Amino acid sequence: MADVLVEQDPQLMTDQDLAAVLHVLDGIAVQGEGTSPRRRQSTEEWTLELHWQQRGPVSADTEAALPEALLRIREHYALQDRPAPVRLRVLDPDGAPLLRVDPADPGAD
């Protein structure tokens, strides 16, 4: 079972992008899989949303690794010359925010 479901809006994320995101997450020991987006976002200032599948908080190790993971995901998009996610948000299984990662100001919601 996946640790997180990664929202894959076809306007923002190709299958190649999803594979890159999943590879980055795998590098921090988080197994993910794609899922349909819960809401539409514009290509400007979009947020990569991850749905944490476990009850309870994200582990401290994972939380500490997410800012670097976001930077690696943004690098992938830069190499593809496509709009990258501005931030990453982790939601619990019910959709409530667990934490938010911004490249300049990582921290919890």
Automatic annotation (TrEMBL):
From which domain of life does this come? Bacteria
Protein name as it appears in the record: Uncharacterized protein
